[in-house]
Amino acid sequence: MAAEIHSRPQTARPVLLNKIEGHSDAVNAAVLIPKEDGVITVSEDRTIRVWLKRDSGQYWPSIYHTVSSPCSCMSYHHDSRRIFIGQDNGAVVVSEVNSNKCSHVPAAAHQNRVSDMIFSLESEWVVSTGHDKSVSWMCTQSGSMLGRHYFTAWASCLQYDHETQHAFVGDYSGQITLLKLEKQTYSTITTLKGHEGSVGALWWDPIQRLLFSGASDHSVIMWDIGGRKGRTLLLQGHHERVQALRYLQLTRQLVTCSADGGIAVWNMDTQREEAPQWLDSDSCQKCEQPFFWNIKQMWDTKTLGLRQHHCRKCGKAVCGKCSSKRSTFPVMGFEFPVRICDACFETIKEEDRTPLATFHEGKHNIAHMDMDPSRGLMVTCGSDRIVKIWDMTQVVGCSLATGFSPR
């Protein structure tokens, strides 16, 4: 059973069911096989493995492929039983779960490491991003390249809406670009800016039309795409870069994982507030003392300039003396204490500090995560070469198995 990393009491924790060990290098992706006791993994050790649970309770590889280059990412489609693997050399490999055959897609997807990919059965496309600063989409039937778009930074992660053919691409600059893909062309719809570090994970919920992003700035952002009002919610509870996330639509919960092994489960079925924009000012907006760059006011008042801070609740620019308090404020996404100006601190009631997320420790670096909501299972993997399978039903609720959402 996983241990807690927060001091506040918890009654429900992820239960570690199995460990899979056997890879000789970092495991970059692991997915659960629906309706089967099986896991598919790809690794830097250049292997693709399908692990099936034996009568002994242990997982053993029933299919084992070795390819020419380290495997960087994977997209698995259960209905077609095909596995698409992105490689360090920019190539795409196709394998079948029930076959020992492994073939390359004729067209090279990228000129450098493939960072993420999604296979669309409806259009027979593979959409992928890479460290050559591009997103590409190609036809799996003909092997022909259909289109490519370049960014100014490495393209790191991807989500794709099959019905509308919209692609969301996160990159190392912290931006998320929304593209409309066509067979021979594309159009740029908009660019989302909110993260202060590289975007490491994306998840798209087509039902509520919500986009979730995690980044190296330790934060998670919910983008309300369907609301068309530009509404964003900031979630801060991790202490390392967020590298994997999954939104559970039935229970309105968001599961996020970070590089230090942190696993967070956020309650999104509650009224939340947007974090304010930080205001600009040359002097403290509470006591009016000048900040250190305000030379004129410092000269006029014969005082030394102060360092500028911002209140996380109201967004005002304040000095250290006027923002000496710290508080959690979960309704705005702050699950650990952040700087609050003295005036706002007085308005926060004790019930306002009630947590809206639970935090757990996976005890290994989590670079990738997959979930099977119908069984309440989660699989995590990372640079420690270990794959862990978790029972999450105590954390996310038994409603996953029954289909009922708690209210």
Automatic annotation (TrEMBL):
Primary residence: other
One cellular component term from this protein's GO annotations in UniProt: early endosome
PROSITE patterns the UniProt entry points to: WD_REPEATS_1, WD_REPEATS_2, WD_REPEATS_REGION, ZF_FYVE
Keywords from the UniProt entry: Endosome, Metal-binding, Repeat, WD repeat, Zinc, Zinc-finger
Limits of the FYVE-type domain: 278-349
SMART domains: FYVE, WD40
Compartments, as annotated in UniProt: Early endosome
Stretches forming WD repeats: 20-51, 192-225, 235-276, 359-392
UniProt-recorded Gene Ontology molecular function terms: zinc ion binding
Domain of life of the source: Eukaryota
Keyword Zinc-finger assigned: yes
GO terms of biological process kind: positive regulation of toll-like receptor 3 signaling pathway; positive regulation of toll-like receptor 4 signaling pathway
Official protein name in the record: WD repeat and FYVE domain containing 1
Provenance organism: Mastacembelus armatus (zig-zag eel)
Taxonomic path: Eukaryota, Metazoa, Chordata, Craniata, Vertebrata
